[in-house]
Amino acid sequence: VRVRGHFADGTVEDVTALTQLTSTDDAVAKIADGRVTAARPGDTTVIAAYGGEVATVPVLVPRPGAVAFDF
After folding, report:
1. Residues 6+ apart with CB under 8 A from 70
2. Secondary structure (3-state) at 17
3. pTM to 2 decimals?
């Protein structure tokens, strides 16, 4: 995971090392050393918190052999 901060003065910086990353369901996906690793099929959300700001990213871990759809 890479987290970039977009600041009011227009600068963009990599703030990954300063960001707290968590998963709402570690049984589905775990976060360690900035990497998200699938643990079992299901869905969870990765939460990134930095400087009082929070961003969320949905994560879906499909079943092995699951059918994929393109939209």
Report:
1. none
2. helix
3. 0.80
